Amino acid sequence: xADSLVIVESPAKAKTxxxxxxxxxxxxxxxxxxxxxxxxxxxxxxxxxxxxxxxTIRGKGDVLKELKDASKKxxxxxxxxxxxxxxEAIAWHLAHYLDLSPEDSCRxxxxxxxxxxxxxxxxxxxxxxxxxxxxxxxxxILDRLVGYKISPLLWKKVKKGLSAGRVQSVAVKLILDRENxxxxxxxxxxxxxxxxxxxxxxAFEAKFYGVQKEKRELGSEAEVQEVLKLIGSxxxxxxxxxxxxxQRNPAPPFITSSLQQExxxxxxxxxxxTMSVAQQLYExxxxxxxxxxxxITYMRTDSTRISPIAQEEAREYVVEKYGxxxxxxxxxxxxxxxxxxxxxxxxxxxxxxxxxxxxxxSFLTRDQHxxxxxxxxxxxxxxxxxxxxxxxxxxxxxGDTVFRATGSKIKFHGFMKVYVEGSDDENAxxxxxxxxxxxxxxxxxxxxxxxxxxxxxxxPRYTEARLVRALEELGIGRPSTYAPTLExxxxxxxxxxxxxxxxxxxxxxxVIQQMEQFFPEILDAEFTAHMEEDLDHVEEGKEEWxxxxxxxxxxxxxxxxxxxxxxxxxxxxxxxxxxxxxxCGKVMVYKMGRFGKFLACSGFPDCRNTxxxxxxxxxSCVKCDKGHIVERxxxxxxxxxxxxxxxxxxxxxxDKPTAKKCPECDSMLVEKRARGETKLNCTQCxxxxxxxxxxAE
Length: 697
Fold this sequence. Notes:
Layout: E1 4-8, H1 11-21, E2 25-29, E3 35-36, E4 44-45, E5 51-52, E6 55-56, H2 61-72, E7 76-79, H3 85-97, H4 115-122, H5 130-157, H6 166-184, E8 189-199, E9 202-211, E10 214-215, H7 221-231, E11 236-248, H8 256-267, H9 271-283, E12 285-286, E13 292-293, H10 308-322, H11 357-360, H12 366-382, E14 387-398, E15 401-412, E16 443-455, H13 464-474, H14 482-491, E17 495-498, E18 501-504, H15 506-518, H16 520-523, H17 525-539, H18 545-566, E19 575-580, E20 587-593, E21 596-601, E22 610-612, E23 615-620, E24 628-633, E25 639-643, E26 652-653, E27 656-661, E28 668-674, E29 677-682, E30 688-690
Parallel strand pairs: 1-2, 1-7
Antiparallel strand pairs: 3-6, 4-5, 8-9, 8-16, 9-10, 9-15, 11-14, 11-16, 12-13, 14-15, 17-18, 19-20, 20-21, 21-22, 23-24, 24-25, 25-26, 27-28, 28-29, 29-30
Helix pairs in contact: 3-5, 5-17, 5-18, 6-14, 6-15, 8-12, 8-13, 9-12
């Protein structure tokens, strides 16, 4: 007969924990929060020390009745929500509803859902930590004050349905500022000269460096011609060879932000998808005879700290798999670097290194396996020895001109046997770029000399990964807020994703303009980061949450009064297209949706006709020979390519078709892009062709 009730957030977590605890425990799920502030009103008594008015979340009645009934039949109730502020708040609300004493040691926390970790946690239950609860309450109320006070103003002055948020507003401003940088950017011309050289049968390239050992930049074609004259018919002779050994260290194990960034780079996952799949791996997966097991530690963390037991487990695995040379003399420890990092939990790691990705593959979905493999490899590599690279820098003289070639080869793979961190730089060089054996005085054969014109490029637009990194570096938001923030700014129509990069909409620009004029501190990254620090101090018991809110609201209230009086009403005019609505004949206008622009009838709401904006890619359809291939978007915003004669012709491709034909079978070639490289792949045979692209710096 059960004598204890355990309450967690989700059925999956309940199922996993239930198998570990045995028949004396009933494990049930609250399905997340049970109480929250009301949606219909601000729900905060500002004059009464910002006292929140919580109500039961609609639809939770049956769940709460089940939990209440179950709690009356047992001697003890344990609250085992996630080990963070949000989880502590869920436990506090449950304790209030179930009439548990504040002095009860009812709170159980664990960083990983494994049998040993869960059993150890139940040996040390504690009281609910009110500092954690108050930090969560303060954030919730702070965001409610900003949202429910500014949003009605925006509704009245700009457009119905708008909202303002503390972290989301800063994120939109970052995107807008970057767009303004791009628009204001003035490209500068520069040139490069590449010499294709040969030493014996070995070919390699060298870049122009300077004249008479002094570095010289080439800013015009005239300067290039001057250099070419200096080269003239002079032989290319090796002038200097410098060889040295370089160490490369592994990346630290994942924290929330770095996991989201790397999953975007390597798996093409959106931030929300990464967190959803990680949650599944954390809560538990059925491993057949072994039962249901949590495969990774808690995935909302800003700490790179690792437990000594996990470190030793990784080291033993590496020695057994690769040999003793592949581990450093002492275990690697990583220090936190992110601004305002709380260091509350370990880094994200596998709960058992012995469960390697290959052995887990049959138990996981494709997405689960890919993310688990990423986490597992990153962690194991983080505990391995440094890689050693032999590097070579060669200066080559041709008359008074100097050309330089650099190369490297891996002498000892170390951690690179398992994993190498991705890069946001699409033009990043690979580690392996060989040069032939060269020595001073060697004469080289000149194959060709190629001058090339370039133009400097503006800073890139933010991808989800880049934006998460920017927010983290600025100390804005916390691990649990990144993914929801990115989702919200798109849902509100403030930004759109175009080719996986954020673009501000006209609506987003208007809202930010109003916010900058009347609520500049909300958009100030430094101010927002300071607020995050204050919330951290509340969590640590160093600061009173009511004082934090009072300090903020004093100046905020004055700005609200000014904005109410001085903010002007703005009418957003839709941009007209040259297309007529095929249903009612009225002109179609451009609208901005979550995934970019689309066409809508200007007769809305009487006519609700919409259609996507299609872009001709300049390729004839290979299936019907009548239509042209156009770029379209799926309902989820993913770009694909189809025939403009649809539905008569159903040709479709996820990869961009090209006008070029396969030289081997005469079929269509499509563009495939991966890790900054574009290749042309045949749709029928195995033919592949590299695309030479000009590198822009």
